[in-house]
């Protein structure tokens, strides 16, 4: 039963991460995402790295590839998002979004890193 819970967490985090990355590509568009990052004072290349981390990391989590390492690698992305929203207060429903959701997501990724990949991985060797 525990392995199923671990797997459900990994699949949920993978789906959320992939969807968030694809949102940047297909809804906000890559140029729009780059512009947003630049408007916050970040260099453009960080937008590309973030998209790559979210799309690639989401796929890796869904496939159960290097779950612990991918989860840990995504934590700074979420903490960066939390830092951007810090001035908007705690609630993510606040104008401009708060920091509650990215911080919770980062903690869930840390939990996933501690638990491993669970079941339904592409390869036990690379889990």
The gist of it:
It comes from Halomonas flagellata. Helix content is 71%, strand content 0%. It is mainly α.
Folded structure, characterized:
The protein is mostly helical. It has helices spanning 2-26, 30-39, 44-63, 67-85, 100-115. The chain has five helices and no strands.
Oligomer: single chain
- As residue ranges, the low-confidence spans are none
Instruction: State the secondary-structure class.
Output: mainly alpha
Spatial shape: globular
Number of strands: 0
Distance from first to last alpha carbon:
18 Å
Q: Could you give the order of the helices and strands?
A: HHHHH
Major sheet summary line: none
β-strand amount: under 5%
Topology, element by element:
Elements (H helix, E strand, L loop, with lengths): L1 H25 L3 H10 L4 H20 L3 H19 L14 H16 L12
Helix pairs in contact: 1-3, 1-5, 2-3, 3-4, 4-5
State the main characteristics:
DoxX-like_oxidoreductase; mainly alpha
